[in-house]
Design brief:
With about 120 residues, this protein is mostly beta strands. It has no helices and eleven strands. The protein has strands at about 1-5, 10-15, 20-25, 30-40, 45-50, 55-60, 65-70, 75-80, 90-105, 105-115, 120-124. The strands form two sheets. Strands 2, 4, 5, 6, 9, 10 and 11 form a seven-stranded mixed β-sheet that branches. It has a four-stranded antiparallel β-sheet with strand order 1-3-8-7, with no helix packed on it.
Length: about 120
């Protein structure tokens, strides 16, 4: 079994910063692409940023220049540094990963896993 657990959400004033973390645990062989998504009530989940196993990053236009995604492969953790936060960044943030894992007598490649989300609230 693989679990993704986000942390670091909270309440911050506009213009402030937060750093989200997402730690993966379980019988992991390797973690491939990772990403952060966000969702507000009544809206579809939207992609915020991605990072490949080699460290190549990509960002949604609405966070470019403000957010930075990074990963620590030794810790199986992906981060999202969020600066210059705006009220419209308020959302539940979810991490996502494609993971290769091993179990008793089997290996599983490229399965997609999601965390349960962490709430970020930006006050004006």
């Amino acid at each position: 079994q693989v679990q993704l657990v986000e942390s670091g959400g909270g309440l911050v004033q506009a213009g402030g910063s937060l750093r989200l973390s997402c730690a993966a645990s379980g019988s992991i062989i390797s973690i491939n692409g990772q990403a952060w998504y966000r969702q507000t009530p009544g809206k579809q989940r939207e992609l915020v940023a991605t990072i490949t196993s080699g460290g190549t990053t990509n960002y949604a236009d609405f966070v470019k220049g403000r957010f930075t995604i990074s990963r620590d492969n030794a810790k199986n953790t992906v981060y999202l540094q969020m600066n210059s936060l705006k009220p419209e960044d308020t959302a539940v943030y979810y991490c996502n990963a494609q993971i290769d894992r091993a179990g008793r007598g089997f290996k599983e490649y490229g399965m997609e896993y999601w965390g349960k989300g962490t709430l970020v609230t930006v006050s004006s």
